[in-house]
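Weekly sync, protein design subgroup
Attendees: M.S., D.O., the rotation student, P.L. (late)

Item 1: inverse folding check
M.S. brought a backbone from last month's batch and wanted to see whether the design step gives back something sensible before we order anything. D.O. pointed out we never logged the input encoding, so this time it goes straight into the notes. Structure tokens as presented (201 positions):
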């Protein structure tokens, strides 16, 4: 999937039905614009299917809860990117139950961490190697589908790249010699509001 469609970009550029000569070019620019957006903020805005990411039971977990009889045991797994929807958590071959944990933040996605509840008997302890001991499956992105605002930015950025196709230098896009230029300022300023405010770890 993509953040926008050829039809949306054509409408933004005010093409009429007979102007189809650059459709292939525009279609190719859409994923490039999407990549520029993702690279700028450091994560993706959509996840059409589940994927599994693996985490280290030593390096990726920290102590978050200090007021517990289990004080000192690592209770929180910090992800390395946003999670829009969780499907499963498997630790050393055991699938954790929903009653074992809470996602952070507690009230809504996207999530950046998973905390073992004080009532759960489980902690991120292990008998063998800590590397890749935790497998988290779900939709790894800011959201399952791109927010409307991001879709609109992708339309604008794709149109900008299209209009800059003959420009040697400018604010954004790719120059004639293949050099990557900056994202236009108004798009960058909006994307700044999506940059992650907390550390992954």
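Designed sequence read out in the meeting:
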């Amino acid at each position: 999937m993509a953040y926008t469609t050829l039809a949306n970009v054509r409408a933004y550029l005010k093409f009429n039905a007979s102007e189809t000569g650059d459709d292939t070019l525009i279609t190719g620019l859409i994923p490039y614009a999407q990549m520029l957006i993702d690279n700028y903020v450091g994560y993706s805005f959509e996840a059409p299917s589940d994927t599994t990411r693996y985490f280290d039971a030593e390096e990726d977990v920290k102590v978050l809860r200090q007021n517990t009889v289990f004080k000192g045991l690592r209770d929180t797994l910090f992800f390395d990117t946003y999670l829009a929807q969780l499907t499963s958590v498997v630790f050393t071959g055991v699938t954790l139950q929903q009653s074992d944990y809470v996602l952070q933040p507690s009230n809504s996605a996207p999530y950046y961490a998973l905390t073992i509840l004080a009532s759960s008997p489980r902690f991120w302890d292990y008998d063998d190697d800590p590397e890749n001991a935790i497998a988290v499956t779900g939709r790894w992105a800011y959201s399952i589908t791109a927010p409307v605002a991001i879709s609109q930015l992708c339309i604008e950025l794709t149109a900008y790249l299209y209009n800059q196709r003959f420009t040697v230098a400018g604010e954004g896009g790719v120059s004639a010699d293949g050099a990557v230029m900056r994202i236009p300022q108004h798009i960058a300023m909006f994307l700044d509001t999506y940059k992650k405010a907390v550390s992954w770890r």
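Discussion: The chain has a mean pLDDT of 86. The CA atoms of residues 155 and 188 lie 14 Å apart.
Action: P.L. to compare against the previous round before Friday.
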